[in-house]
Specification:
Blueprint lengths: L7 H4 L9 E4 L8 H10 L4 E4 L16 E3 L2 H13 L1 H14 L4 H16 L2 H8 L15 E6 L2 E6 L10 H16 L5 E6 L19 H10 L2 H7 L4 E5 L2 E3 L1 H4 L6 E5 L3 E3 L13 H9 L1 H10 L3 E2 H7 L4 E3 L1
Parallel strand pairs: 1-2, 2-3, 5-6, 6-7, 7-9, 8-10, 9-12
Antiparallel strand pairs: 4-5, 10-11
Helix pairs in contact: 3-4, 4-5, 4-12, 5-8, 7-9, 11-12
């Protein structure tokens, strides 16, 4: 087995021609896979298991891989996307590996460090260079987050409907303020997280990408003011109501909630790897706790959209309504 070769870690580097590693497990697992388990955990590129239709990807040895796929088309799609963005793809699976089983706090720190590193990388700079110039910003029509108190219920509504609630720094700051109130006031029994307009949240405000002075400062900001940390702290009291586009932060943040209700039109996407980044709003800590490491990796590596029915079957949401 080539994975046990002393030079395997270098051969299957994300910088080399043989990455990613794809293995067909349909003919049964060799006993030698137990010896290869440690190598898989250290592999410097994503590992993909091709399993039979209906097979349990949570069973060994498939569970030791970063992603499990059940069709050749899925396999080709994952491989193609990984080869387009090798640095971000490797950073993603390495982050998911080291965060597994750790606390939310540890996961958020690791995510921020990886995200900040990639902000200085060539894949993100290439994505930035290909962007159209930012359009003039219209004056805000109201607060970025509406805060409403009704007895023991606090409702926080993302409120940039004209931008499909693109997650801006102003929205982040306002959401942190509202969640801090919820944590400080024990009389608040329920926190409702919702979005105004046609979408819950279309992801990070792309016009703000790359505007912080340097990656180290960006990490310091995320470590200081992070709505994901606050959501996780009050999660049992949080109910998220999502609809329409749920992209990037629009998937990652509600996944911390104790209960997530989605309308039938909800669509869930993690596009960050295609930008040369990893999810940066807490998704590598929140999604694996709901859908597992492999499905989180699949969503992020492929950038595929998940419909509400599949999200319910996977456990990403708890209820689908009309």
């Amino acid at each position: 087995m080539r994975l046990l070769d002393p030079g395997a870690l270098e051969r299957f580097s994300c910088l080399g021609p043989e990455a990613p590693l794809a293995v067909d497990l349909r003919e049964g697992a060799s006993a030698r896979w137990e010896s290869a388990r440690r190598a898989l955990a250290m592999l410097p590129c994503p590992s993909i298991a091709r399993v039979a239709q209906g097979a349990d990807p949570g069973a060994a040895p498939a569970a030791w891989f970063d992603v499990a796929v059940a069709t050749d088309a899925e396999l080709r799609h994952v491989v193609e996307q990984v080869r387009r963005h090798p640095l971000a793809s490797f950073a993603l699976v390495q982050l998911l590996r080291v965060s597994e089983g750790r606390t939310v706090h540890d996961g958020l720190v690791a995510e921020s460090l990886v995200y900040s590193t990639l902000q200085a990388g060539p894949e993100f700079h290439e994505w930035l260079a290909g962007r159209s110039p930012a359009k003039p910003r219209p004056a805000p029509e109201g607060p970025a987050v509406r805060v409403d108190r009704d007895g023991a219920r606090l409702t926080l509504t993302l409120n940039r409907p004209a931008k499909h609630n693109a997650f801006s720094t102003a929205m982040r700051d306002a959401l942190c303020e509202g969640l801090t109130v919820a944590l400080a006031d024990e009389s608040i029994a329920e926190v409702v997280l919702a979005g105004a307009g046609p979408s819950f949240c279309s992801g990070g405000d792309l016009d703000e990408f790359g505007t912080l002075p340097d990656p180290a400062t960006a990490h310091a900001v995320r470590a200081t003011r992070n709505p994901a940390r606050l959501l996780a702290a009050c999660a049992p009291r949080v109910r998220a109501r999502v609809h329409g586009a749920c992209v990037g932060a629009g998937v990652e943040l509600p996944a911390f909630a104790g209960r997530v209700t989605a309308q039938q039109d909800a669509r869930f996407e993690l596009p960050e790897v295609s930008m040369g980044l990893v999810p940066g709003a807490g998704g590598t800590a929140s999604l694996p706790r709901r859908i597992g490491r492999q499905r989180t990796a699949w969503l992020a590596l492929t950038g595929s959209a998940l419909d509400a029915g599949t999200a319910l079957a996977w456990g990403l949401v708890d209820e689908v309504t009309t």
